[in-house]
Design a protein that fits this description.
- 13% of the residues lie in helices and 33% in strands.
- A hairpin with a 7-residue loop joins β4 (97-105) and β5 (113-120).
- It has one domain.
- It has 4 helices and 23 strands.
- The chain is globular.
- It is α+β, with helices and mostly antiparallel strands.
- It has helices at residues 21-42, 82-87, 202-208, 281-290, and strands spanning 54-58, 64-69, 91-94, 97-105, 113-120, 125-131, 133-134, 137-138, 151-154, 158-159, 162-163, 167-169, 172-175, 184-189, 194-198, 211-217, 220-222, 248-252, 258-265, 295-299, 307-310, 316-319, 327-333.
C-alpha cells in the first residue's frame, strides 16, 4: 500500500556539498566549445546520413564488423547478435553485478563511441531513488550516492527542476504518471518483482497498490518481447531519426537481470568522452536488442548521462556527466 501526495524535491537529500553553479557552467561551456571545434575540424554534422546508417562493432580480433543497417533494421529482436555477444567480455564486479564495454563505429559524429555496460540481478540488491534539488536547481550526481552503494545512475527524464512522470519512493507515490505511448517505467513491487512496464501497463500496476519504487521515462525503445515500437521503424512517426547524442538506456534481460548501457564518445575515458555525440534513438534500440534485452527505455542522456559502480574492494568506477539531475537510482547490496 502507498499513499499519494505531492512531492517536494527541493532539498539535497545526500547532505553532500553541491558543485557551485559557476563551476558546472564552465564545464558545460568547455564541453560545447570542444564539440564545436570537433565539428568544424572534421566537417561532421549532428545529423545521420540521409542514405541510412550502419553500426559496426570491434571484435576480439580488433576488426570492425557491420552488424546492423537502418535499411535492413529488424522490427523484432528474437535473439542476441553473435558479433555483439562475442565482443562483450563480462567482468565480475561483485556477486550479481557485472560490467563490460563495447566499441561501436557509426556515422557522422557517431563515427566512434564506447558503451559502458553493467548488468545486475535485482533480487540480490535493494533499489532506492535519491532526489536532490538546491535553490530550484537539480543537484544530484553519482557523487551524491552513498559510499555503501554498489551502483548509481541518473534516473528518468526531467523538466525544469523536477523529475518527469511517475515517481514512487518507499511505497509512497510522490508524483503521478504522465501519459505518452512511448513512456515506460521501472517498477519494483512489495513481492520483490522488478520489471520494466510499458505505458499501457502502468495504470493497472498503479491500481494494485503494491509498488514500492517506480520512475517513468521515455522514449520506450523495446516493448513486449523484443519488439521495436512502430514509431522507431520509420521517420515521421514522432521520433527524431537524425539526432545523434550520448545515450543512457535501461533494459530487462530474459533471466530477470537489468542491463544498463551508457555511451561515451570516442573512448570511454578520453577527455572528449562526455561530449554529447553518439547513436540515434533507433540505433540505441538496435544495440539493446542485440544485447538480448526484451524491453528497454532511454533515460536522460546527453550531458546528464552518468553511472558508477563499486567493486568488492571498494574501488569506484565512475563515468560522470556534465550536468546534475533531480533524481538518481542507487543500488545497495541486500542484507542477508
Amino acid at each position: 500500500m502507498y499513499e499519494t501526495d505531492r512531492p517536494d524535491f527541493r532539498f539535497n537529500c545526500t547532505g553532500k556539498k553541491v558543485i557551485p553553479g559557476a563551476r558546472a557552467a564552465v564545464r558545460v561551456v568547455l564541453s560545447l566549445s570542444l564539440a564545436l571545434a570537433l565539428v568544424i575540424a572534421t566537417g561532421f554534422t549532428l545529423k545521420a546520413q540521409s542514405a541510412g546508417s550502419a553500426l559496426s562493432v570491434r571484435g576480439p580480433d580488433g576488426k570492425f564488423r557491420v552488424w546492423w543497417r537502418s535499411s535492413q533494421a529488424p522490427s523484432e529482436w528474437k535473439t542476441t547478435v553473435p558479433a555483439i555477444t562475442e565482443a562483450v567480455q563480462w567482468r565480475k564486479v561483485r556477486p550479481g553485478l557485472e560490467s563490460s564495454t563495447l566499441e561501436i563505429s557509426g556515422e557522422g559524429v557517431g563515427w566512434r563511441f564506447h558503451i559502458v555496460l553493467a548488468r545486475f540481478l535485482p533480487a540480490l540488491f535493494s533499489l532506492q531513488l535519491d532526489s536532490a534539488v538546491v535553490d530550484s536547481k537539480p543537484a544530484w550526481s553519482i557523487d551524491s550516492a552513498s559510499p555503501r552503494s554498489v551502483l548509481a545512475m541518473n534516473a528518468g527524464q526531467f523538466e525544469g527542476d523536477l523529475p518527469w512522470g511517475w515517481i514512487v519512493r518507499d511505497g509512497r507515490e510522490v508524483q503521478p504518471p504522465r501519459t505518452g505511448p512511448l513512456s515506460s517505467a521501472l517498477v519494483v513491487d512489495s513481492e520483490g518483482q522488478c520489471v520494466i512496464a510499458d505505458a499501457a501497463e502502468i495504470p493497472g500496476i498503479r491500481e494494485s497498490r503494491k509498488t514500492i519504487l517506480a520512475f517513468q521515462s521515455y522514449p520506450t525503445i523495446l516493448v513486449d518481447d523484443g519488439r521495436v515500437p512502430d514509431a522507431l521503424l520509420a521517420p515521421g512517426r514522432g521520433v527524431d531519426f537524425d539526432h545523434r547524442d550520448s545515450r543512457l538506456a535501461l533494459g530487462s534481460l530474459p533471466d530477470g537481470r537489468l542491463l544498463i548501457a551508457l555511451t561515451r564518445f570516442g573512448t570511454a575515458n578520453s577527455p572528449l568522452a562526455r561530449l554529447p555525440f553518439g547513436p540515434t534513438t533507433p540505433e540505441m534500440a538496435a544495440i539493446m536488442g542485440a544485447l538480448g534485452c526484451r524491453r528497454a527505455m532511454l533515460l536522460d542522456g546527453g550531458i546528464s548521462g552518468q553511472i558508477s559502480f563499486r567493486d568488492m574492494n571498494g574501488r569506484l568506477n565512475r563515468w560522470p556527466g556534465f550536468r546534475s539531475v533531480p533524481l538518481g537510482l542507487v543500488v545497495f547490496p541486500k542484507k542477508p
